[in-house]
């Protein structure tokens, strides 16, 4: 018995109609218009007449009006020039039209948070993340001296200082950067600055003799270590710190030293031994008060400098711009320590009050201050 083999007919793969295959995915437009009721509706009606489908809308406030960023799926055969003329006929200015990807249609806040999480996981991607947040054509890392925000070649530019040494330069040909975008980018970089400083975790410092010490926040469980620190300190060291003739610290003070009201303590630890104690206590306005105590055997080795530098980083992350310390008149040890820590102290006042300015590279970014 013969069995006839039947070959099924070949089915061609499905393809969309030719006109759909040639249609662009999306266009991104920036339309400057007067902030009057009904203006956006008129633009939307005009786009509907041209069979454009509006996929996304972002309103960017600018001086003298608003700048609407609209993402549309254009009708087949419609040109960018025709769409621009239609917008101009409504009395608005279309400052830019660029091809867009529908995958970019994500809420700006959500997109920024996603980008931040990637940069936290990999700090080497700062430039890529900033390019995504700004919808820039290119973001490069250059030495700060070469950033020159006044340059205009290569399209529109925005410059962001990274660490006081280098800068991120964003370039975009299709549209200028507006203030809201710059503020969003500054807020993102400010978050990444705080993460990079990592103020909530211990830090490692190296003393002048090469010894490594750990700087970490003091906790109530450190009471015995802090008490032992005071026991080892000379009467002169304690007098410089507390301005009284005490020989040791009463145990009832230990909790307040480690957990000051509204403030924090910072310990310098070598092995299991507490060798230094710093405090940061918020004052009025943007000022915070600091104090230091270093074991006699560890003085002039950089322990106090490390404590003060770290306290300045923590203070800046908490929104303080100046520090204040009190020393005995005629004693300039705290002044020298501040200078070695890279801070900017004023000359001490007559009563021993020292005001210290935190340098700009440690201060948090101010949104919109690009």
TrEMBL record:
<feature type="domain" description="ACT">
    <location>
        <begin position="28"/>
        <end position="110"/>
    </location>
</feature>
<dbReference type="InterPro" id="IPR000182">
    <property type="entry name" value="GNAT_dom"/>
</dbReference>
<dbReference type="GO" id="GO:0016747">
    <property type="term" value="F:acyltransferase activity, transferring groups other than amino-acyl groups"/>
</dbReference>
<protein>
    <recommendedName>
        <fullName>GNAT family N-acetyltransferase</fullName>
    </recommendedName>
</protein>
<dbReference type="Pfam" id="PF00583">
    <property type="entry name" value="Acetyltransf_1"/>
</dbReference>
<feature type="domain" description="N-acetyltransferase">
    <location>
        <begin position="213"/>
        <end position="359"/>
    </location>
</feature>
<dbReference type="InterPro" id="IPR045865">
    <property type="entry name" value="ACT-like_dom_sf"/>
</dbReference>
<dbReference type="InterPro" id="IPR016181">
    <property type="entry name" value="Acyl_CoA_acyltransferase"/>
</dbReference>
<dbReference type="InterPro" id="IPR002912">
    <property type="entry name" value="ACT_dom"/>
</dbReference>
